[in-house]
Amino acid sequence: MKKETISWEDFEKVELRAGTIIQVDDFPKARKPAYKLLIDLGPQIGIKRSSAQITTFYTKEELLGKQVICVTNFPPRQIAGFMSEVLTTGFILEGSAVVLAKSERKVPDGSRLA
């Protein structure tokens, strides 16, 4: 489903930044299967928390050290007693499975997607 057209200025408001997953924990209190992630977004932003429904294709072990793309300027969101500070991005497939969005090459944590 195509969304409404936005301006370049609208797109520039979204902070999409690269970060490396440094910790992955199970999230049994989540309504849908999810992990709790700690993501290093570089020295300017620091380490942030994210809840991510990415259990279909990813184990905790393979997520460690993986670089992902996060939205860093959404307000924090309380999810089942866990404060998610950034949105980890991915492609939602049929059946709600998520494939992570990532950079084609490793970039410095905190790098902005433009």
Describe the secondary structure blueprint for this structure.
Elements: H1 8-12, E1 16-26, E2 35-40, H2 42-45, E3 47-52, H3 60-63, E4 67-71, E5 77-79, E6 82-84, E7 87-88, E8 90-92, E9 98-100
Antiparallel strand pairs: 1-2, 1-4, 2-3, 4-7, 5-6, 8-9
The protein's oligomeric status is single chain
Average pLDDT, all residues: 95
| Spatial strand order of the main sheet | 3-2-1-4-7
Total strands: 9
- The ordered H/E elements are HEEHEHEEEEEE
Largest sheet: 5 strands, antiparallel
> How much is the radius of gyration in Å?
14 Å
Which runs of at least 5 residues are low in confidence (pLDDT < 50)? none
Q: Structural class, from secondary structure content?
A: mainly beta
The CA-CA distance between the termini, in Å, is: 24 Å
Helix content: 10-25%
> Number of helical runs?
3
Instruction: Name the overall outline.
Output: globular
Q: What amount of the residues lies in strands?
A: 35-45%
How would you describe this protein?
There is one protein chain. With 114 residues, the chain is mainly β. Helix content is 11%, strand content 37%. It has helices at 8-12, 42-45, 60-63; strands at residues 16-26, 35-40, 47-52, 67-71, 77-79, 82-84, 87-88, 90-92, 98-100. The longest helix is centred in the N-terminal third of the chain and has 5 residues, at 8-12.
